[in-house]
């Protein structure tokens, strides 16, 4: 098996200000499937083509933002190894027992120096995507319900201590840089797009004056046409759109940024390219951020650097 | 619900007109805003740039304003990350989460520049 260690972002737990309003948004507008609720009142959802039990967890709170981001690892042995490696690096970890999150095994939780809770887990129940494992159809009705992304793709997190966070993600967890945005000095990392797979990013980080901020959680669509369709559905449902439809210069992805009913930004995203760990990272300088963000309009949307939850 | 919000805000039932005049004290701009939608949405319709537009859903705080004069009602939750009890008591609110009930005079508190300023400061080594 060539892809080992950390496999992918597996779940994002998002704080919402009005749970049922956002269940409606994520389920009926974005088109995720509601798969369960737990005794804490959390609502679990998954994208139609995901096979594990859930990828989005919504929690009622009085502050918007991200509670945690979970990454699936390839085995229990890897989970144990990462736990030891994190501790050896001086990172405090904590075990969240299996079952605290529905249908999910033990999680190893730690805080990134940027203030975000990251957790690793090896086991989550395979509930399937509604298609057979034998001779399946390519899609079903769920693939057309709402915006209907096929998966949770990545997130962009913001905080002060970005350098120490990059070190943990690359040296201990095996992420590699795909694209990097530098400040005028050519050395200070303003933002970085990290992959643990062959995606252009599984996790991106941006330097901010505040710790623990969520910039966006992103959902994958199969084509640019589907991104435009997502924009239509957003407008039909009075969703606040931030930027797009357009293409990012950085990662080449086609995109719309929009906000859930609590002001958490989400992205509907498609495209990019296949990346491998041996590739030289692509470098952007801060004066080219406008086209890095919006290649079509070459415009630095002020909200990109100022609006977070 | 509407009636309840109004009486919460005013302590009495008063007729709410369909449109009211909103004045941005920082710039002197005025516009007529609907009373059945958020103040931010009303300002947006007129293209007024004084109040920054962010998430429009109570989460990001860039549309923070001080209501200096006039009646209003909160119609959706604001993230308490940015709005404290003291803020609410002093009429410091998010424009996306309140509807005007009478003519309003407001001041802009929210900033769109803080994060970028920080990035620039990093760049300059400041």
Summarize the structure.
Chain A is an alpha/beta fold and about 300 residues long. Chain A is about 20% helix and about 35% strand. By secondary structure, chain B is an alpha+beta fold.
Number of domains of chain A: 2
User: What does the main sheet of chain A amount to?
Assistant: 9 strands, mixed
Helix content of chain A: 10-25%
Average pLDDT level of chain A: 97
Task: Output the CATH topology of chain B.
Answer: Ubiquitin-like (UB roll)
**Proportion in β-strands of chain A:** 35-45%
Q: Mean pLDDT of chain B, nearest integer?
A: 82
Largest sheet of chain B: 5 strands, mixed
Helix content of chain B: 25-40%
CATH H level, superfamily name of chain B = Beta-grasp domain
What is the 3D form of chain A?
A: globular
Calculate the terminal CA-CA distance of chain B, rounded to whole Å: 51 Å
Quickly name the level 1 CATH class of chain B.
Alpha Beta
Structure explained in plain terms:
The complex is a heterodimer of chains A (309) and B (126). In chain A, a hairpin with a 6-residue loop joins β10 and β11. Chain A folds into 2 domains: 139 residues, 2,3-Dihydroxybiphenyl 1,2-Dioxygenase, domain 1 (Roll); 156 residues, 2,3-Dihydroxybiphenyl 1,2-Dioxygenase, domain 1. In chain A, 19% of the residues lie in helices and 36% in strands. By secondary structure, chain A is α/β, with parallel strands linked by helices. Chain A is built from 6 helices and 17 strands. Chain B is α+β, with helices and mostly antiparallel strands. Chain B has one domain: Ubiquitin-like (UB roll), CATH 3.10.20.30. In chain B, the strands form 2 sheets. In chain B, strands 2-1-7-3-5 form a 5-stranded mixed β-sheet. A two-stranded antiparallel sheet of chain B has the order 4-6. Chain B is globular, with a radius of gyration of 15 Å. The chains are: A alpha/beta (309), B alpha+beta (126).
List the helices and strands and how they pair.
The complex is a heterodimer of chains A (309) and B (126).
Chain A: E1 6-16, H1 19-29, E2 33-37, E3 43-46, E4 56-60, E5 65-73, H2 76-88, E6 93-96, E7 107-111, E8 117-121, E9 151-159, H3 162-172, E10 176-182, E11 189-195, E12 203-207, E13 213-220, H4 224-236, E14 240-247, E15 253-259, E16 265-271, E17 282-285, H5 289-293, H6 302-306
Parallel strand pairs in A: 1-4, 5-8, 9-12, 10-17, 13-16
Antiparallel strand pairs in A: 1-5, 2-3, 3-4, 6-7, 7-8, 9-13, 10-11, 11-12, 14-15, 15-16
Chain B: H1 2-10, E1 19-24, E2 29-34, H2 39-45, E3 64-69, E4 72-74, H3 85-89, E5 92-94, E6 98-100, E7 104-108, H4 114-124
